[in-house]
């Protein structure tokens, strides 16, 4: 028997950096995309466990992070569910470390797969919470929660921290007309340079030592997710682009050290070609661009010509997906407990 799990990555994370321990409370708007992490579990004929990872190749030959975490995390999940004798294969178009919530998606997918193997029934919130706690144990430091919830729940969601790490999640349903129009205006671009490994430490230091300027930036960042929900429901993409620009500027003011030269270059290039807005994803490594639909194609062609990788994706509507492949080829899709 093989078990398969698919967990979406995410973009936007509007309000991000207010969801850290130093910020204490905040709000983040996330949007899941079908650029996903896939996990396959197989019974192992001998004891122990093994993890194989296969991620897409990035621009300039850039590969996955120099220090992968999957094997150590898999061991923690096996211990948590008291399971053994399993091999895991983790695949994805983009490796963790490029600002799209890939680390959280890997953790949630592995947690869901082993939980299903062990016969445990968990809700998406429970899976996200278990994966988050195990990741904290592995890393030995606090880590934001929103990517884990987005990978488990999918869709567009407003997450309120009250305070860290407690999260209240509100789904933001949009009409299919607005969802399709949003897809037609979005570009996600990989810089070819992963986020700094010390990015969270750098941010936490800036927040704790930044004084009044840091507090003002966080206060303004906290106000953006609710405004973004309002303009998205209206389908006002020009105003939504303005919120992306505002978020980007506030993050640059709060912690400029995470902005690579490639991010500066992409921002200037996209705005020069008529984009509504540009926003850093996560802690760096990629950006989301919102562009008028009649200019999107030309902008994408220009960006590719400059050597950057543009992701092909759709907005995710369903979140975590699980299915079981029986020996005779039958496939059973497993609903995630509500």
Secondary-structure blueprint of this entry?
Elements: E1 2-14, E2 26-43, E3 49-55, H1 70-80, E4 86-92, H2 102-117, H3 124-139, H4 146-153, E5 156-161, E6 167-171, H5 176-183, E7 186-190, H6 199-209, H7 211-234, H8 237-254, H9 261-272, E8 277-280, E9 286-290, H10 293-305, E10 309-310, E11 321-325, E12 331-334
Parallel strand pairs: 3-4
Antiparallel strand pairs: 1-2, 1-11, 2-4, 2-5, 5-6, 7-9, 7-10, 8-9, 11-12
Helix pairs in contact: 1-2, 1-3, 2-3, 2-4, 3-4, 6-7, 7-8
Named CATH architecture of the largest domain = 2-Layer Sandwich
Shape: globular
Provide the helix percentage. 40-55%
The number of helical runs is 10
Low-confidence stretches: none
Strand content: 15-25%
Q: Indicate the CATH class of the largest domain.
A: Alpha Beta
Specify Rg, calculated over alpha carbons: 19 Å
Q: What pattern of helices and strands is seen along the backbone?
A: EEEHEHHHEEHEHHHHEEHEEE
What is the CATH topology classification name of the largest domain?
Ribosomal Protein S5, domain 2
Mean pLDDT: 91
Number of individual domains: 2
Biggest beta-sheet profile: 8 strands, mixed
Report how far the terminal alpha carbons are from each other.
25 Å
Strands, total number = 12
